């Protein structure tokens, strides 16, 4: 069954169309890569799917119900959005990884945090490391890990590997692969990276606010 269905979705700002007639179906556990020129509407599209922007026309159905029928807080726990410039807060890595538990009044699963850190090439001792001492790539890995500490169903990634060096890119890439293959998360990832585009399981392309290529 499809998890996300967009029917003739459009987005206008005043009279300017940013997205036009987007028809797209994404199944649970799929990994969809979105490519296209700068300014073509990729971020706008994923922000609509993430409920951070409201479409101005068409329908968006998530798990059988219109997006408007969901409480936005509940929806955003199921559909997580990560972007290029991660915001870490507090003093330490632990503060960040514990945050998803705190807001749900759950106790922190330290074991899961350590497993996650090891998975992204960090270690248990990094848990108490100051976020200011992390490199840009490490910050991105911790930010992504924070977004999946309590599993969402959909992970939306808006150019999360942009600006990372090859080593950090490889860590982030294998992390995403693990979430998708082993944990069954649905992945929607925007990228300009040719290697990621070439490796896409399902590639869709946006040009000038319309889906123009790939398997729609
Ligand atoms: N609120 C807004 N008001 C006016 N124009 C907007 C608004 N939001 C987006 N746009 C325009 O819509 C177009 C699509 O923007 P969007 O950020 O979705 O593109 P993108 O494909 O993600 O680009 P990039 O690859 O550079 O990140 C751009 O021309 C942008 O200037």
Automatic annotation (TrEMBL):
Residues 4-216 form the ABC transporter domain. It comes from the Bacteria. SMART domains: AAA. One of its GO terms (biological process) is phosphate ion transport. Pfam families: ABC_tran. The keyword DNA-binding does not apply. Keywords: ATP-binding, Cell inner membrane, Cell membrane, Membrane, Nucleotide-binding, Phosphate transport, Translocase, Transport. PROSITE patterns: ABC_TRANSPORTER_1, ABC_TRANSPORTER_2. GO terms for molecular function: ATP binding; ATP hydrolysis activity. InterPro entries: AAA+_ATPase, ABC_transporter-like_ATP-bd, ABC_transporter-like_CS, P-loop_NTPase. Signal peptide: none annotated. Gene3D superfamilies: P-loop containing nucleotide triphosphate hydrolases. This is Spermidine/putrescine ABC transporter ATP-binding protein.
């Amino acid at each position: 069954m499809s998890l996300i269905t967009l029917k003739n979705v459009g987005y206008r700002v005043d009279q300017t169309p940013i997205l036009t007639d987007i028809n797209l179906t994404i199944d649970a556990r799929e990994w969809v890569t979105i490519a296209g020129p700068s300014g073509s509407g990729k971020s706008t599209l994923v922000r609509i799917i993430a409920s951070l922007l409201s479409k101005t026309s068409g329908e968006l159905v998530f798990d059988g119900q219109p997006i408007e029928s969901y409480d936005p807080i509940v929806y955003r726990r199921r559909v997580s959005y990560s972007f290029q410039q991660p915001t870490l807060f507090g003093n330490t890595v632990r503060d960040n990884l514990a945050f998803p538990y705190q807001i749900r009044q759950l106790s922190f699963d330290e074991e899961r945090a350590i497993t996650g850190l090891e998975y992204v090439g960090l270690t248990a001792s990094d848990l108490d490391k100051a976020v200011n001492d992390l490199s840009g790539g490490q910050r991105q890995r911790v930010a992504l890990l924070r977004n999946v500490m309590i599993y969402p169903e959909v992970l939306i990634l808006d150019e999360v590997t942009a600006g990372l060096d090859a080593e950090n890119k490889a860590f982030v890439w294998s992390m995403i692969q693990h979430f998708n293959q082993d944990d069954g998360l649905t992945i929607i990832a925007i990228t300009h990276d040719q290697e990621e585009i070439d490796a896409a399981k399902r590639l869709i392309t946006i040009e000038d606010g319309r889906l123009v290529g790939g398997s729609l």
